[in-house]
Design brief:
Elements (H helix, E strand, L loop, with lengths): L4 E6 L2 H5 L10 E8 L2 E6 L1 E3 L9 E7 L2 E8 L5 E10 L4 E9 L7 E9 L2 E8 L13 H12 L5 E7 L9 E3 H4 E9 L2 E6 L4 E6 L4 E7 L4 E8 L3 E8 L4 E7 L2 H13 L9 E9 L6 E11 L4 E5 L2 E5 L6 E4 L2
């Protein structure tokens, strides 16, 4: 949000990834504030959320008070959806405005959402299976095997999507995919994951197993591929810093570490892995030509690095399972 304030999302990873009976904490949003060298956590109150629908937030984006997040509502139904809120920083509240729901025949697991402006958003799917209704906790052994083989395959098979929030859907509490959204053929990639935009002309998308950030030019009626920037390993989320004009990416060094991590976590007590894996945080300098990639943090310091954001002189590194790691880089 600014140099001393960041927002993070929460979800019940036990339910989403593994065992439906393993309930930890409800999903939502938190604000992290840097006060006197210490980081304070503050929960964001969610208002007017649809009754009977759980909230498990994965990727999200915030722009001009519009807060949007991918919601893995597997236990209560109807599965993956995108939620929109009006966020008040002063009141620490997020008032639900509308939902974007997927059709029953939609394939893939939603991952992240990026706001270009109030009438145009993008989102990604990162797994072909399980479908968006059942969720990973109900994944069959066959689906797990197919996902693993697909994860290790070099074949591109997934896309990013665009939704137009124009007059025909404005004011609706529930917007269907068919009303507003379509896939973007130009974004065909191996594993679309983290997604961000500079709100002006560029869309940044992590293609995890190809170890790259894909950069697209956003036109009024299309998205055109511009270039790819390669990183040292598998990357998850992408953070855009408009002040420094840079991207931060975080991930695992090796593909097979991710496969082993998920198997290790599934077998571990409470599904919390005890093993740490080689991870990294890199910055991509968008002012340089060619684009320069610099390693900021590396080593076996976390179970899996999924995202990074600057907070003061620190970098906060997130994980699927464990606590946030605070790394001093300056």
């Amino acid at each position: 949000i600014d140099s001393s304030t960041a927002m993070i999302s929460r979800m019940d990873t036990g339910t989403i990834c593994f065992d439906e009976s393993l309930r930890r904490r409800p999903g939502g949003f938190e604000i992290l504030k840097l006060q006197g060298g210490k980081i304070e956590h503050h929960s964001v109150a969610v208002e007017d959320f649809p009754a009977g629908v759980e909230l498990n937030v994965h990727g999200f984006d915030l722009h001009d008070g519009l807060l949007m997040g991918v919601n893995h509502a597997y236990n209560t139904g109807p599965g993956d959806r995108i939620e929109a809120f009006k966020f008040s920083r002063a009141e620490m509240k997020a008032k639900h405005v509308f939902s974007i729901v997927m059709p029953s025949n939609f394939t893939g697991t939603l991952n992240d959402v990026a706001i270009f402006d109030e009438k145009r958003i993008f989102f990604t799917t990162w797994l072909k299976k399980p479908d968006h209704i059942e969720g990973k906790a109900k994944n069959s052994l066959l689906n797990e095997l197919e996902n693993t083989l697909d994860f290790l395959s070099p074949v591109n098979s997934l896309y990013a999507y665009e939704c137009r929030l124009d007059k025909k859907v404005q004011g609706k509490k529930v917007i269907t995919f068919e009303e507003a959204c379509h896939y973007l053929p130009e974004t065909l990639s191996k594993m679309p994951n983290g997604l961000k935009t500079d709100r002006r002309s560029r869309l940044f998308m992590a293609d995890s197993t190809k170890k790259r950030v894909r950069i697209f030019t956003v036109l009024s009626d299309a998205v055109v591929h511009s270039e790819d920037v390669y990183t040292q390993g598998l990357i998850d989320n992408v953070t855009y810093d408009p002040v420094r004009e840079e991207l931060l990416v975080a991930g695992l060094a090796r593909a097979y570490d991710f496969v082993f991590l998920m198997a290790h976590a599934k077998a571990a007590k409470n599904h919390i892995p005890t093993k740490k894996f080689p991870a990294f945080v890199e910055k991509i300098d968008l002012k340089s030509s060619p684009l320069k990639v610099t390693t900021l943090v590396s080593g076996s310091f976390i179970d899996v690095a999924t995202g990074a954001v600057r907070l003061g002189k620190n970098i906060l590194v997130g994980s699927i399972f464990g606590p946030i790691q605070v790394c001093s880089v300056e």
